[in-house]
Amino acid sequence: MLLRRVGAVLALAVLAACTDAAPLVPPSDDPAGTLASASPSATAPSAPSNLVPTLLSDTSLQVTWTAGTDSTTHFEVHRRILNADSTWGDWHLASWQAPFSRVHYDTWIYSGSTVRFRIRACNDTACSDWEWSAAIWMAPPAVPANLAGTPLSATRLRVTWTEGAGNEDGFRLHRQHQDNGAWTPLQPLAAPERNATAFTDTGLVAGVTYRYHIDACNAAGCSAGVLSPDVVIPSPPAAPTGTAAAATSATSAQVTWTDASTDETSFTIARRLRNLDGTLGPWTVAGFVTAGSTAYPDGELLPGRTYKYMVRACVGVVCSEWSPAARVTLPAG
After folding, report:
1. How crowded is residue 5: how many other Cβ atoms within 10 Å of its Cβ?
2. Chain centroid to CA 242: how far?
3. Quick one: which of 177, 198, 176 has its CA closest to 185?
4. What is the pLDDT of residues 230-271, one digit of tens each?
5. How confident is the model over 11-27, as pLDDT tens digits?
6. Would you call the peptide bond into 188 cis, given omega within 30 degrees of 0 as the criterion?
7. Can you tell me the distance from the alpha carbon of 189 to that of 168, in angstroms, rounded to the nearest whole number?
8. Strand segments (E) across 163-319
9. How many CB atoms sit inside 10 A of residue 133's CB?
């Protein structure tokens, strides 16, 4: 019996020492929870750091931290919840943790709550300053918005969206095409990660209509989904034919071709230079012309040198094959 009484007295002494070092509840007009506690005694342990809450479900979470380097007898973990009027409630003791503990599990939280934590280290005489966590929302993420697909080529689409509240751990993205009503998940091989706002979908087929569905998820669950408008990768236009090139001066040439398509939106003209040692340089884009064009004047060339040209037709970013190359040698200057 005597030993039990002595143990109880010691426990009360420790609690009193920690309570005197820093108040448990900060002033009620501190909605952001940024006021520091009273300065700790010189004998207090150093404060913990890196206090991070992580969702486990819509009603539970874990809080982890990094301990200081000096002697600690226990940690105090406190919790506060955001009220319906957007003011913060009072701090309440969530748990006392042993000196070797680095995690607190909390299951006493209502779904949809916004909660924040703080922690301090204590020894037999005093407690450290508080370490504060960021606020965390105990709810599934908000619905993403503005989901859309944009063709990048005859086989690729860029899918973009806008984040909701930003508390997601990742997104689930699915694709559907007109020939098959089933939704195809684009994961786990390519699951968009937290804070992502775009995804490149590959291996597609020109001329097919696609649509996309996305929702945001975290440990509390997933949001409602959102659908994209239908998007079609246009079929490539027919390649130009009869490409020819003729010198118009010592430093310019005229490239001509026959337009073999009816739906192009532009033409791209490529050029390469024959080097003095007879090797050919890389192909570079010489220029662009609008739909229906059949000629392109190229200037600022090197006198006496040989050039090759080829042309392709494009519908947006989807282009035909290149035409057979045409060669021209300019007169010496």
Report:
1. 9
2. 47
3. 176
4. 999 999 999 999 999 999 999 999 999 999 999 999 999 999
5. 333 333 333 333 333 33
6. yes
7. 19
8. 170-177, 180-185, 198-201, 209-218, 221-222, 226-227, 231-232, 241-249, 252-258, 266-273, 284-290, 295-298, 306-315, 318-319
9. 20
